Each structure stands twice: as structure tokens, then as C-alpha cells.
Amino acid sequence: MSLPDHQLELLAPARDADIGIEAVNHGADAIYIGGPSFGARSSADNSVQQIARLVRHAHRFNSRVFVTLNTILRDDELAPARQLAWQLYEAGVDALIIQDMGLLTLDLPPIQLHASTQTDIRTPEKARFLQDAGLSQLVLARELTLSQIAAIRAATDPARSTLEFFVHGALCVAYSGQCYISQAHSGRSANRGECSQACRLPYQVIDSSGRFVAHDKHVLSMKDNNQSENLAALVDAGVRSFKIEGRYKDMAYVKNITAHYRTLLDALIDERPHSAQPLARSSSGSTTFTFTPDPKQNFNREFTDYFVPGRQIDIGAFDSPKNPGRPIGHVTQLGPNWVEIETAASNTVLHNGDGLCYYDLQKELVGLAINRAQAMGKRWRVFPKDALASLKDLRKGTEVNRNRDVEWVRMLEKKSAERRIGVWAQLTETPDGLKLTLTDEDGHSALAYAALPAARRQLAHDAAGASRNLHEHIGKLGESLFTLLDLQVELSQAWFVPTSLLNPLRRDAVAALEAARERAWLRLPRGQAVTPPAPYPESSLSYLANVYNQKARDFYARHGVKVIAPAYEALQESGEVSLMITKHCVRFSMSLCPKQAKGITGVQGTVKAEPLQLVNGKERLTLRFDCKACEMHVIGKLKSSVRQQGLKAIAIVTSSSLSLRT
């Protein structure tokens, strides 16, 4: 069983439990977080106890918690991974996000399993297979168009699988799970959470004749994903879980971006109350913010909606992988230890601690941190933390951006959101006193009683004042997770009810309602694999399938695969292979694509998709272009030193495993 098809899920990242709790408070319907190991982010681990703390808070609002268990696993890691899965289940976690199909052959707890982005879901056939294998939520490839997403939804069953899609954050240029540059060059496997991010490096681009096509350009670095304008179209295509990237991100990023998409999704839900398919959020309550969300305030490489509307030329952050910030003005003059800046807008305020930046003559970003900012009308005299001599190419007329607004950061360090669940209250008489009934927006009810014998009841001297007193004290729900929508008072007379009786009555009712909600919480059940086992769409698998253990091989064999090559991390591919496969095309981005030249007089037929070379220091990679599939392959080979070190490590692990068995 998957998420009900009319519900939309905002899925936010959490580096730790505190960030996850704030993501819930800022409107997240679900959180994904790394556990103590096997989480595909080498420095974003959390203990089971901390995750349990997050689970308790999230479940109060019917928000769910997913834990990443999405590295590929060695044989000796399967048993610890299974043990961790049970620990997470017992901690109340709602789902595990996995990549390694070997896990499906183990005795796992009855917990939902979600297909990680690393499973590289690009086709209806792959999506249908993973659904039929028992995976309840499918994270689609970021490179898909709206029509491709709709085709996947048409091939799958909304009652059995939810489609999840990244809507914001950093973009990996490769199809997820299909990048091995880090492993080949450094021995750090991206499929095991240790990517060295070769895609963010500057490269010389050289053609087949040895001519420079580009110099020191970050040609594999993408702008950041932002699907703010496409949410309605994604819903119509079948997406129901909207995922924010960022398990390395800080608290301010998660607060701001979660609030941004909460606001957009709530507006979309409100626009369709009586449509053919009314929408609802998948968790409880509503959220108010003390700030106006603004994605441009956080670190970003500028934004793109990537391939969702179709192939576009301007998706790369080729000049710099850093945050260029927002334009604020230009340099008017330089002093011995200060820079004078004229701002474009008269209301721009610079602060001590702000971060500024500008492009030098080589189009590289240079940072300028403000030690002290002094207002001079529309101009500002800025005293940098670093000596002016160290600020390369800073001169009169230089355009300046701000990439860190310290006041914005400080604002988000404070409490910045309230999340509350609406309740209706009813106060009635009983023979012995009063009864308070609370019913929340999800239909849960709870009762509390207060003794007020008939002999002690007194009429209020001021009936209107007594009514106001009842509403005031029963409505004091600020310390709870509830907010009062309406109070109905059904008393036979305008009795005087003392505050000393009303306050504990309200507290008892609130506690009872929280307990009722906790008792009613149910995890969505594990998806069931079809029988007989569904055949895998292909009969043979190369290293690109990331099969790293015997249990994974057994899984694919049971699903009809005849030839199964080991994962690249097994160090069996010593020659040149595709180290990265990507929908991004360097030729297209530089207007060198043969399809772009088609029909242009004097050019048609002269532009060929010949290979290009990428060079960074001693590293050299070849770009080959599959024009039929409209894909680019980055070709390279495993370094001999990396292979030797890796084989030694494998030998040590194998020896240790044998020792434990004997």
C-alpha cells in the first residue's frame, strides 16, 4: 500500500534530529535522514536513539520518517544492515530507502521499502519492476521530462507505489548511481557515500585536433534544481512526493526551503478543492511562519528546472560551482583598507558579517567578507576582513553580489514557525460536573471530566463575562500542538466555573487527545512482491547495475537475469569504461551539437559529435556522445594505484570474514 493518491507529501532532508524536528515544524509531511551507517552520506550519520526522538515528534503531526540505507553493500555488511533495519523499525521509523537489491532477500522487518535515487529509475519498465518487487515509493531520475514521468505513472499502480521527485537542491550531473569517477580516481565510491565531487572541478575542454574549446570551465557542474514553477504540472504527471535535496545542509536552509515549498503546495491544494481530483496534504495541521521564505537567500549556484520542460541550453554553472549570490551594486572607489559600494536599491542595508563576492577577470568568484559596514547615504563604505591586496581584480566599476545576509541567518536561528492541529471543543454538563470533548481535524476525539456537584454550582453575576472566561481558558492551547477552531458551550445555566477547574480540565483533555492520536498512528504496510517473481526488464547486467554482493546476484537471478557482472567497486573493470553517464551534453551547452546545426546553411553536415577531452591537472577524461539516446558518456579507467589499494582492502575484509566463520 502506498500513500493515498489524493495526498501530496513534502519530503525534507535532515542532517540530524534537531534539523528534522524543525523541518516538521516548518511543514514537512515526511523527513529523510541517515542512520548510524550505510546511509550514502559519509558524514551525515545519526544514532538510532536520535532518530527515535525525531520519530516521536514527527508522528505527533502524522509526518513520517524515512531512513537512508542506500549504499551498495559488501557480503560482510549484509548482516549488520539487517540488524540496523530491525533497530530502526523498533524505533518507529516508517520506511527504509534502499539501493541494494540484496536487502530484499533478507529477513527484514515489516517496514516499507523505498527505491533510492541511486536505483536510476528512468523507464516505465524499471519502475514497474521495482513496484512488483515490493518497493512502495519510487524516487524518479531528476533528468525526466513531464511526459516521461506521466508514462511511468501510467505503467504503475498508484495504490501500490508513490512517485517521488526531487524539486529543489543541488543536482548531480550523472544519472544517480551511474557515476564512478570518484571510485576510479580516488577509491572513494559514490555508491557507498564517499563521492569526491569531480563534477565540480574546472576542466580544459579539448577537441579531437587538440584545440581548446573551453578553458578552466566547470563544464560538469550544474545549476541548482528549482521546480517552484512546475509543481502543478508535476502533480498532473503523477508525482505525489516532492523531495528537497540536502542531507548536508544547515538548519537555515532546511527551514527556509521547507517553508517555501509548504507555502506553494498549500496554495496548490487550496486552488483545487472542488476539482475532479481534490488534493490534501499527507500530514496534519497547518504552519505559520515569522518570515517570508526566499530560496535565493540560501546557498545556490543559480537555478534551473533542468529537463522537466524538455532539454534546455542554460542548465550549467560553468563559471563557478560556488554561490554567486544576488546583485546589490557596484564599486565606486577603493581606499587603503575599505571599498565604497553604491547599491542599486536605496533600501539595501549591509551588515557587519555579510558575505559579498564578485567575478575576477578570469570569471572566477572572489569572496569578500565584511568586517564593518558604514552607511553613507546610498553608498556604503565596507571594511573587508582580508587585506585589499588579496582581493584579485577588485576595481572601480566591479559589480558586487551578496551571498550571505547575516541578518537573514540570525532571523532563522530563532524560532521561525508554529505548527498546529485544529480542534473543535464542546463543553457540556454531567450529573457530577463538566465534560470537555476535543475533536481534532483528523477525527480523533478525547474526553476529560471535572467535578462540580450541583450543590456547589453558582450562577455567574456576569453571564457574558463568564462566557468569555470559558472561551479564554479552554482556548489556551499555546503549549500544546493544537489550536482552537471553535468552542460550543452547552450548559443549562450561565454557571460560574472557576479558572482553577477550567485549566486542569483543558490540560487533561489535551493530554487525552494526544494519547488518542498516538494510539491511532499506523505505519503504512510493506509492499508485497508479486508471485511468481516479476522478470527483470533485461537478461544481462553490466557493472552499471551495482551488484556488489551474492544476495544481490541471487535476487537478479531469481528475476530471470542470466549474466550478472560485478559492481565497479569490485575492481574488475580495469580498462576504459563509462565512468559517468549523463543527460547533460557539453556539446549542446556550447552550441556544438550536430542537431543544433541541422538546417543552418553552410553548417549542416559539418558539425560532428566527435569526442572531446576533459583535462584537470594529470586527470584526463574522454567525452563520447550517444546522439541517438541524447546522452553523454564520460570515459576513463581505474587508476592502477587505486586498484592495488582496493584489492588489498578486499583481501583484508575477506580474511577477516573467513576468520569469523572459523
**Protein structure class:** alpha/beta
Number of helical runs? 15
Biggest sheet, open or closed, and with what strands and sense?
A: 8 strands, parallel, barrel
Distance between the terminal alpha carbons, to the nearest Å? 43 Å
Helix content: 25-40%
Q: What is the approximate shape? A: globular
Strand order of the largest sheet: 1-2-3-4-5-6-7-11
Low-confidence segments, given as residue ranges, are none
On the 0 to 100 scale, the average pLDDT is: 94
The CATH C-level class name of the domain at 7-171 and 225-289 and 291-297: Alpha Beta
CATH architecture identity of the domain at 7-171 and 225-289 and 291-297 = Alpha-Beta Barrel
Give me the CATH fold name of the domain at 7-171 and 225-289 and 291-297. Answer: TIM Barrel
How much is the radius of gyration in Å?
29 Å
Strand content: 25-35%
Tally of DSSP β-strands? 30
The H-level CATH homologous superfamily of the domain at 7-171 and 225-289 and 291-297, spelled out, is Aldolase class I
Molecular structure report:
It is a single chain. A hairpin with a 4-residue loop joins β22 and β23 (445-451). α1 (17-25) packs parallel to α8 (251-271) and α4 packs parallel to α5. The protein has an eight-stranded parallel β-barrel, surrounded by six helices. The chain has a six-stranded antiparallel β-sheet with strand order 9-8-28-29-30-27. Strands 15-16-19-18-17-20 form a six-stranded antiparallel barrel. Among the domains are: 7-171 and 225-289 and 291-297, TIM Barrel (Alpha-Beta Barrel), CATH 3.20.20; 322-413, Thrombin, subunit H, CATH 2.40.10; 417-520, no CATH class. With 662 residues, the chain is of the alpha/beta class. Helices cover 26% and strands 26% of the residues.
